Amino acid sequence: MATRGHERIERDISPSNPSPRPVLTDVSAAPAQPELKTMRIQENVLARHERQLLNWLCARMPGWVTPDLLTALGVIGAILTFVGYAASNLADTWLWLAIAGYVIQWFGDSMDGSLARWRKIERPSYGYFIDHSCDGLTTALIVWGIGTTPYVTMDVVMVALVGYLLLSIHAYLSARVLGEFKLSYLAAGPTELRFLLIGLTVAMMVLGNGPGLFGSISGFDVFVGGIGAILMTLFVVQTLVTGRRLALAAARDGQGRR
Fold first, then answer.
1. Is residue 148 over pLDDT 70?
2. Which carries the bigger pLDDT value, residue 40 or residue 99?
3. Phi, psi values for residue 156, rounded to 5°
4. Would you kindly state one Gene Ontology biological process term found in this protein's UniProt entry (predicted)?
5. Which pLDDT score is estimated for 211?
6. In sequence order, what are the beta bridge partners of 217?
């Protein structure tokens, strides 16, 4: 099914019509759902100081720098982080490239939407779609990169990736059904997570790839796996809390059960 203007294209499949043909159905009379305004909720520790820095940068950004360019820069930063991690199998000095990639990725990812809002050139639907699509890609690149290092096993980092993506899915669904886009949990957001991963990367260079605490399981495995477990727990708790809020709201509105 696809939509074009006020028409919906459907396939008419019946015994009398063995070769399906598109049928145009007018849906202009269908009641439109009211657009739910989304409120960004950001309560992480560094939020206020980060916002001050971003506003300072926005005021000084050259005119040729666009939000789309910054989004692309964020993806490039994630690619550099991946390359730095993967190349650490050759020498741990490559981990400095991974750290530089984090800085570039933060700059591009944090500045694209900020610059659009600063210049009042927002494209809400386009920006939301492109930004979070790139977020998924950059997260996968960074976490996959960590798994390619000799310090953390790929199985463990996949647990962390699943936890992060589950929590991201919850945030996107909450934006749709509650009008709340939550950007931080446990007083931590994407910026704090980047600092945490930079600290992990520095620890890799300082401590090296020594014997594991539990046989083949290293301390880095325990650390990354612990982050994954926390993210999954947050997803379960937030899902239960949001589900209860929606159930109570439905009961108040007299909608009954789904």
1. yes
2. 99
3. -70, -45
4. phospholipid biosynthetic process
5. 62
6. 214
Is the per-residue pLDDT at 39 higher than 60? Answer: yes
Q: CA 255 to CA 182: how far, in whole Å? A: 26
Domains and CATH numbers, the chain: 1-30 (no CATH), 39-252 (1.20.120.1760)
CA distances from 96 to 21, 80, 188, 224 (A): 58, 10, 24, 19
Q: Are 170 and 235 in contact (CB under 8 A)?
A: yes
- 104 or 177: whose pLDDT is higher? 104
* Cα–Cα distance for residue pair 107/50, rounded to 1 Å: 11
pLDDT, tens only, 227-251: 999 999 999 999 999 999 999 888 8
